[in-house]
Amino acid sequence: DCPLNLTGSNFTLVASICSTNDDRGKCCRYINAVIAVSVAHYANATGNLGVTANLSETCLHSIPETLGLYGVPRNATAFCGFGTKIPVNYVCEGRTTVTQMLQSPKFSDVTVNCKLPLSEDTNCRKCVNASITYLRQLIGAEDNMTLSTCRDATFTAIASQVDGVSVVEIASCFFGVQGLSNFPVSVPSPASHTPEASPSPLVAASPNPLMLGTPLTKNHHHYRLTLIPGIGLAVTAVALMMLVVLVFLIRRKSRELEDSEKLDKTSSKAFPHSWPVRKFQEGPSSMFRKFSYKEIKKATGSFNTIIGRGGFGTVYKAEFSDGLVAAVKRMNKVSEQGDDDFCREIELLARLHHRHLVALRGFCIAKHERFLLYEYMANGSLKDHLHAPGRTPLSWRTRMQIAIDVANALVIYRIMLFFFAGVPPFLL
Ligand SMILES: Nc1ncnc2c1ncn2[C@@H]1O[C@H](COP(=O)(O)OP(=O)(O)OP(=O)(O)O)[C@@H](O)[C@H]1O
Fold first, then answer.
1. 68 against 230, higher pLDDT
2. How far apart are CA 299 and CA 335, in angstroms?
3. ipTM
4. Nearest of 86, 58, 107, 221 to residue 149 by alpha carbon
5. In this predicted model, what pLDDT tens digit does every residue of 248-304 receive, in sequence order?
6. Residue 154 scores a pLDDT above 90
7. 298-341 pLDDT per residue, tens
């Protein structure tokens, strides 16, 4: 018999998710999580990252049958790639046991960051991001299949160390699934770290970005530069002059844009479907465009290339057929932001051009979902460079330069906010 025990899984929920065609990715995530939980229990007893080769055939045959008996459609199991994309043993780069995973380089970072409880959103995010960083270091730019198998192996290695209820708690965080178990268990709210419709499990695919653009969002206004008197005065004078020139240039640009907007007034009523696309394609940044949901889905391998999670949603790496590589931010569904607000925000972001700000490449509004596409930063985030273990520390000179660059970028941002959103430009 197949030794993987699926008992305790909330099959009613999985069956209902998988019975509609609405969100197949979500269905696959649940199936993956159910299997991963059973593998974790098995690993707890045997120390292996899944069933041995001689039993795997039996499991591949019996699991879809069991799921089918509980109402999970056969075609869903097949569609999700049970047996291939969702295996019953997680051999990660030659590692077949929990011990080998635990002893792999930097696994301790995952252990440290994935401490229970993971029901707290921030804890869960820390755990997910640590796992992503670990996987990136472990396997680099391997194919998605290796990444997802190693992701499952990572989960199994952590989850095999804890009791049954905690396994589900870790799975809920790791796979972004809710209500996985029939037993009461405290699980993280999907609202902030996993968009409800996010169809893919956590898969890391690329290095973190050195993104100075991200601080534009909330919680990042903590910087305060204290300048030495004298130097401070000179810097302030130069900054003021630059400000005046900038204000002049922005006003002129803004007038030009307003004129072109007037021409577009009738079609702007059809907002958001036609307005931003035309306007931006004709505007100064011809690189900026509207993307279709289909394009994004294809470019992210059906949302299978998670590179991180932030306060506003999940970020995926996307490779488009025209060669464009972008970071796609899939906004959390809970956002109260209306279409008007969202479009005003992208209008503002699209106008921001600064060498220290990550450029916005486009957006997508589809199926009640919103996506922002940013220039892809392949060299890792600033946070990584400052805190990731094993990196050569940045020199203080570089750190100062970065702080100054960030401050400059923020000034530009505040000015833009003033001109386009009416927010007073109090400098930091
Ligand atoms: N342009 C990008 N290029 C490459 N990776 C990115 C890019 N933007 C975000 N990421 C990855 O996604 C993660 C989450 O980014 P995101 O901007 O959503 O959140 P954050 O900056 O951590 O926090 P917050 O949501 O509060 O701004 C980052 O830590 C990074 O690893």
1. 68
2. 24
3. 0.96
4. 86
5. 888 777 766 664 454 344 334 333 333 334 344 433 344 688 899 999 999 999 999
6. yes
7. 999 999 999 988 888 899 999 999 999 999 999 886 555 666 66
CA pair distance 301, 201, nearest whole angstrom: 12
Q: Which atom of ligand 1 is nearest to the CA of 383?
A: 29
Mutate to test the pocket of ligand 1, among 312, 335, 381 (most ligand atoms within 8 A of CB): 381
Nearest protein Cα to ligand 1, atom 21: 214
Q: Is 382 in the pocket of ligand 1 (CB under 6 A)?
A: no
Residue 307: CB within 6 Å of ligand 1? Answer: yes
H/E/C letters for each residue in 221-286? CCCCCCCCCCHHHHHHHHHHHHHHHHHHHHHHHHHHHHHHHHHCHHHHCCCCCCHHHHHHHHCCCC
270-279 as b/e, with b when 16 or more CB fall inside 10 Å?
eebeebbbeb
- Strand, helix or coil at 289? strand
Does ligand 1 come within 6 angstroms of the Cβ of 28? no
Peptide bond into 117 cis (omega under 30): yes
- Span 163-205, pLDDT tens digits: 878 899 899 888 888 888 876 544 444 333 333 333 333 433 3
Q: Give the Å distance between the CA of 63 and the centre of ligand 1.
A: 37
Q: In angstroms, what CA-CA distances link 110 with 101, 106, 123, 131, 152?
A: 11, 8, 12, 6, 13
Sheet of 289-290: strands edge to edge? 289-290, 360-366, 369-375, 325-331, 313-319, 306-309
CATH number of 214-421: 3.30.200.20
- Ligand 1 pocket, residue 82 CB under 6 Å: no
Residues of the chain with CATH 3.30.200.20: 214-421
